[in-house]
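Researcher: Quick test of sequence recovery. Tokens follow.
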């Protein structure tokens, strides 16, 4: 409080004390001069009345409350009622954390335990309500599937052979290798050459088997005399034609084979016009190329021709056959394959037997 206000307050107290009787008689005091400017008359009257009627009257407190522009003491808050606070507004911050991935909730499998619904009024169960969380008719289907699975597993268990009691099937001996089967296997893809003391007997066995089976064989006169030592009759040749086609020279055999290959290719291109539907047996050629291998090689590469050559064959496989009919070497690889060979007399006898049912 400034010095001026203190002087005015003291003057007001003096005036109040001097005019105490009139103020008591009257309802309130009358302020004049500086006291009127300093004090609020209505507030002074009210404060004086409160002090005089209270237990501990305090004139100074009444005057302090009546000063114009004086701050009123803050009201005390009642206990138990906390002061209300204004909500603090926070600015949104940008989150630096990566967004959480949505979690997928896997629904639980429906229970297979049958659940009996509570009976409705009247003692009967309510119809149309699902049992155990499953629609009506699902539980019998599940039970049927389970029973089928158990039955199948039981059947497999009963029909499965017991290893200790299973009897091993007797091993079948492999059939002996034939001369024709070995020749066909070794002659792929560009022909087979045969050498050694057993070469003639091997080729005779192949020739007899081919004619007996109905295949077509092309051979020159020189190779036919070599195989049968000049004992092959002309009547037998005519009886075996056209299965056995004998040419006089190598050039004649090549021309015949070229024409035969053209006919075979035409039948394959037009299977409807062919009696064999384009799937006829291949032609077998027995020859001695010698120095004419460049002429024989293009024919030997045909897919419908199997070449069997006397002597070494540099364009394909060459096998060595000993006097007992055993293949001792195929190319550069040594082997030991026993085959059944035929002599000239035995081969002629089988060919004459073949003409009886031709």
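Model:
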């Amino acid at each position: 409080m400034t010095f001026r206000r203190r002087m005015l307050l003291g003057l007001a107290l003096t005036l109040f004390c001097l005019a105490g009787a009139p103020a008591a008689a009257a309802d309130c005091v009358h302020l004049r001069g500086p006291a009127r400017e300093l004090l609020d008359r209505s507030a002074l009257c009210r404060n004086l009345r409160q002090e005089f009627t209270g237990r501990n009257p305090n004139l100074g407190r009444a005057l302090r409350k009546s000063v114009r522009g004086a701050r009123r003491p803050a009201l005390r808050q009642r206990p138990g009622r906390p002061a209300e606070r204004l909500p603090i507004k926070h600015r949104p911050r940008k989150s630096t954390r990566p967004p959480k991935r949505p979690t997928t909730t896997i629904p639980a499998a429906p229970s297979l335990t049958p659940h009996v619904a509570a009976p409705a009024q009247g003692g009967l169960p309510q119809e149309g309500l699902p049992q155990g969380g499953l629609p009506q008719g699902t539980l019998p289907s599940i039970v049927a599937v389970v029973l089928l699975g158990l039955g199948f597993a039981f059947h497999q268990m009963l029909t499965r052979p017991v290893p200790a009691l299973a009897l091993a099937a007797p091993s079948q001996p492999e059939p002996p290798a034939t001369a024709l089967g070995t020749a066909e296997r070794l002659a792929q893809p560009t022909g087979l050459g045969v050498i050694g003391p057993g070469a003639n007997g091997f080729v005779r066995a192949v020739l007899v088997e081919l004619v007996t089976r109905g295949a077509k064989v092309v051979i020159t006169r020189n190779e036919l005399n070599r195989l049968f030592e000049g004992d092959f009759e002309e009547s037998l040749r005519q009886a075996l034609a056209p299965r056995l086609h004998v040419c006089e020279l190598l050039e004649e055999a090549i021309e015949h084979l070229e024409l035969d290959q053209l006919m075979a290719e035409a039948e394959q291109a037009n299977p409807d016009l062919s009696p064999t539907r384009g799937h006829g047996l291949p032609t077998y050629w027995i020859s001695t190329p010698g120095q004419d291998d460049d002429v024989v090689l293009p024919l030997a590469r045909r897919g419908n021709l199997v070449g069997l050559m006397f002597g070494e064959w540099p364009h394909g496989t060459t096998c060595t056959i000993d006097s007992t009919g055993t293949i001792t070497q195929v190319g550069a690889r040594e082997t030991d394959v026993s085959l059944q060979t035929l002599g000239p007399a035995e081969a002629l006898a089988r060919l004459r037997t073949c003409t009886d049912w031709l």
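The longest helix spans residues 138-159.
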